[in-house]
Amino acid sequence: MVNKKHISITINGEVKEAEVEPRMLLAHFLRDQAGLTGTHIGCDTTNCGACTVIMDGKAVKSCTILAVQANGRKVLTIEGLSKGREKLHPVQQSFVDKHGLQCGYCTSGMILTSYWLLKNKKNVTEEEIREAISGNLCRCTGYDNIIDSVKDASKKMEEEGDPIEEQPEIKVRA
Amino acid sequence: MNPPTFEYFAPTGIDEVIDILAKYPGEAKILAGGQSILPLLKSRISSIPYLVSLSEIKGMSYVVEGKDGVKIGSMTIDSDLENSDLIEKRFPILHDATKQLADPLVRNVGTIGGNLSHADPANDLPAVMISLGARFTIRGKKGSREVEARDFFMDTFTTALEPDEILTEVYIPFWGRNSGGAYVKFKKNTWNFSVAAVAVQLELDGNTCKKAQIATTAVSPKSGRVESAEKHLVGKPLTDDVIKKAAEEVAASAEPVTDSYGSEEYKREILKRITREAIKKAISRAGGN
């Protein structure tokens, strides 16, 4: 039996500690240990991006990162975007307003990749959006409504700002 | 899909990494970003008993300009190279490659050291480093040594690294004033590997080619220099005819295999086209016509 490893990951502002098998994927840790099932697993082969989360400020595919590799890092999942607030996050609201989703399976990944893009670039062009989401697959929309959603979100983020602030770290033990 | 079980180490220093590699020769592998190794483990193509992660080691991610070249730490992620103004200005060929490498999310985790050490002939960075004449710093039980990029790639998934060795730094020497390069990649979708790609780095003297280094991706068992094609360029004015002959030689000397990405013949035709494009782009970046 392989020794378990102790890890501590700050997820959506809360510190989550656990003993995990080294082979456990971050996506499984988020879903099965932290109970955050908004992170979806699609292809499970690093292609589709349904499992996208933000780790230390960068959009990454959580099916291709070990939970132990995320030790000591900060992870933001789709649940963290509007956590503790009544309103949806501007990026989420734009996907609703501009019909940026149909079945919804890719949506949490699409929204988090878009959030990462918009945190790094202002007044994004269609080309920049298409490049940014090139690692996220959508089988319903044909992408056009997603592009419109991200453009709209870019405006909303300019006007309303990003409601996510550094949250106080709350210790939670698994 | 879970990877098969393995013992996991996350040391805080390179010496410790080398100790673990030496303790389990051939059975221990380094985990850098994991964007190649984890898919292989998950699909059970590979099984590795001991994984040595570099994630807890500080100071292995940097891009630093020196007097004669640029030093890049092996844990530097692809997107940091992509967003480096220094790389874009001094080595546009590397900027070309990092912009097109896998997808933006993979580039946020994948590292230069991992991309090179994995030595997949379909990876983009080996050809770029060979054409730039990069040198790699390698550390192991016997100490530190330097290996030229062109001598590093031995075969498919096989490098000059001994079982106890780790690639720690990539050094890219500056080229002369009238130099430039380009990496042109042909792929069908973001998530596919290249059908073919080519790296061309040139130095000009007026409109005459002074120096040329060409390497390919995904069309032979390993990335290497295509010296027979370079000979068509060096010492000659770079006319359309000269460029065409060099491109034809790149296509003729490649060893593409027929697979789901296309037939051997198709890949040679693609190679001709992208090599012409890469040479023309390199000439324009080198300040030629």
Structure description:
The complex is a heterodimer of chains A (174) and B (289). Chain A has 174 residues and is an alpha/beta fold. Chain A folds into two domains: 5-78, Roll (Ubiquitin-like (UB roll)), CATH 3.10.20.30; 90-160, Orthogonal Bundle (DNA polymerase, domain 1), CATH 1.10.150. Chain A is 33% helix and 17% strand. Chain A has a six-stranded mixed beta sheet, with helices on both faces. In chain A, strand 3 (52-55) and strand 4 form a beta hairpin. In chain A, helix 3 (90-97) crosses helix 6 and helix 4 (107-120) packs across helix 6. Chain A is globular and about 50 Å long. The mean pLDDT of chain A is 94. Chain B has 289 residues and is α+β, with helices and mostly antiparallel strands. Chain B has three domains: 7-53, Uridine Diphospho-n-acetylenolpyruvylglucosamine Reductase, domain 2, CATH 3.30.43.10; 63-173, 2-Layer Sandwich (Uridine Diphospho-n-acetylenolpyruvylglucosamine Reductase, domain 3), CATH 3.30.465; 179-285, Enolase-like, domain 1 (2-Layer Sandwich), CATH 3.30.390. Chain B is built from twelve helices and 13 strands. Chain B has helices at residues 14-23, 37-42, 78-82, 85-90, 92-100, 104-107, 112-118, 125-132, 149-152, 227-233, 240-253, 264-285, and strands spanning 7-9, 28-31, 50-53, 63-65, 69-73, 135-140, 143-148, 153-155, 158-159, 166-173, 179-186, 196-205, 208-217. In chain B, the strands form four sheets. Chain B has a five-stranded antiparallel beta sheet with strand order 4-5-10-6-7. Chain B has a three-stranded parallel beta sheet with strand order 1-3-2, with helices on one face. In chain B, helix 10 packs antiparallel against helix 11 and helix 11 (240-253) crosses helix 12 (264-285). The chains are: A alpha/beta (174), B alpha+beta (289). The interface between A and B is medium-sized, with 33 and 31 residues.
